[in-house]
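User: Sequence in, structure out. Go.
Assistant: Echoing your sequence, followed by the structure tokens.
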Amino acid sequence: MRIQQLRELLEYVAECHLDMAKLYHRLNEQADSSRTKLLLDYFEQHQKGVARHLEDYIDEAPKRILESWYKDFVFEDFSKRCENAMLPATMNDDDVLELHLELDNLLIGLLEKTANSSSAADVKSALEDLVRVQKIHQQRLVHSTMRMDDI
């Protein structure tokens, strides 16, 4: 994927979270364990929420920040990665969490890389704030998953 403006990057990341939601929905249909199905449903809803938050951010962010340009910024085909991701029907909570963290960390890394390559202080600061929020979302999801183990 070739990104030219920050708006495109953020729209792409939101779309990637929706791709993750689709992946969790597909895995939910294949999973044997009702407990794992519950977790996958939770992850699917969580990813849809993260995408909505990013879309809201895009709607509210200053136009000047969203129109920041990047030269030759390329990122992998995340949608294809989600389509190709597979887990066995016997998957467990740890398998799902491991897959989620791998995918989520790729997106967080993309935002971090973009922040580090931003020359404008306000753009860099906005992206660093987004990275911080994404990491908080990830941390909460992991904690929620751990709490499910206690049930």
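User: And one key feature?
Assistant: The beta strands are 2-5, 69-74.
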